[in-house]
Write a structure and sequence with these properties.
alpha/beta; Nucleotidyltransferase, domain 5; 6-stranded mixed beta sheet
């Protein structure tokens, strides 16, 4: 279903010593995610003992299998060329060419890495004038990243502007306690049925709302969907506006922020609906957002999301996207049965 070999250029006919078969190595990396193997060494040991798996990947004899160093060089090439990202994009476009996605659920998940976090440089703040501005004086505030994106920034510029270095991230868990991790954050758009549409990797400290606009534009190029489902972290007017401009209906949980009156009103309204046993159509649709939570859980538990053994944003993204490829094809095969 993935057909990853179609995206790898052959070196036959070129001068010099021919390189090892990259198509077989790429299929082996997909198999590594399918069997949730934490290291390449375990993969090589499995290939030497499992004849069927070895032949599926493209090696007839045990002696034909490339060495661990060749796998390492090939993985670096795949990460530089963004091979799994390109394969996943093609698979989604081909599968949803004549389909309409009902709900596009958006969320992020923490990715722990085995590397040192980037030390943030101390930036000297420019002293600002205190007090109220004089009559006729206008103080211009620097636009935020979200405001720059909404102002018409290109997609490539948006992605380049997002931090991607390893650092420390903090968030509240389901019980309300703060948890921290060292590594990255993977932002995922998921269609109905738990099929990932698009992914963006950023630093762990990047807020979810800063990735919503570029992720929405990537997904819009791949599929046609009706509703955008997001939690309260994405409650910003720029995100609401872009969703409507793309022809979607945004269903975003309200964030009261520091408005105590609004917070009390939301709590009272939820209580009234619960007592009356009443649910709005928007509330029923919003429950579909749990789809992306299941995608996050499966990626971590079944497809290598918890065993990141590479360093650098490009290689981490390559590792995760091999898992996303395996997850996507697995979900699509479930619907074909």
């Amino acid at each position: 279903m993935i057909r990853i070999e179609e995206f790898i250029l052959s070196s036959k006919g070129y001068p010099g010593r021919p390189i090892e078969d990259r198509a077989a190595i790429a299929r082996a990396f997909v198999a590594k995610m399918v069997y949730n193997m934490p290291t390449t060494r375990i993969l090589l040991d499995r290939l030497k003992t499992d004849i069927s798996l070895r032949r599926i990947c493209g090696w007839e004899r045990k002696s034909d299998i490339s060495g661990e160093w060749t796998f390492s060089r090939a993985f670096a090439e795949f990460s530089d060329s963004q091979l799994p990202e390109r394969v996943h994009e093609s698979l989604i476009k081909k599968s949803y060419k004549a389909e309409i996605v009902g709900h596009n659920s958006r969320d992020s998940t923490a990715i722990e890495a085995r590397e040192k976090p980037l030390k943030k440089e101390n930036v000297k703040k420019v002293a600002k004038k205190r007090g109220r501005p004089k009559k006729g004086e206008e103080r211009i505030k620097d636009p935020t990243r979200l405001e720059k994106q909404a102002a018409g920034m290109g997609l490539s510029d948006m992605l380049d502007d997002l931090p991607s270095a390893c650092d420390v991230g903090t968030k509240k868990n389901s019980k309300g306690y703060k948890t921290s991790w060292i590594g990255y954050k993977l932002h995922i758009d998921s269609a109905d049925g738990g099929i990932p549409i698009s992914c963006v990797l950023t630093s762990a400290s990047v807020h979810d709302s800063q990735v919503a606009i570029p992720l929405a534009k990537i997904s819009h190029e791949r599929v046609t969907n009706l509703y955008d489902l997001m939690d309260s972290a994405y409650d910003a007017p720029q995100i609401h506006q872009l969703s409507r401009e793309l022809g979607h209906i945004p269903l975003i949980d309200k964030h009261p922020r520091r408005d105590k009156a609004l917070k009390a009103e939301i709590k009272a309204e939820n209580k009234r609906c619960r007592i009356a046993g009443y649910q709005t159509a928007e509330t029923v649709r919003y429950k579909e957002r749990s789809t992306v939570e299941r995608v996050n859980g499966r990626l971590k538990d079944e497809y290598g999301g918890r065993v990141v053994r590479v360093k650098g944003a490009a290689k981490v993204m390559c590792h995760l996207m091999f898992g996303i490829l395996a997850l996507t094809s697995n979900q699509m095969m479930c619907f074909l049965e």
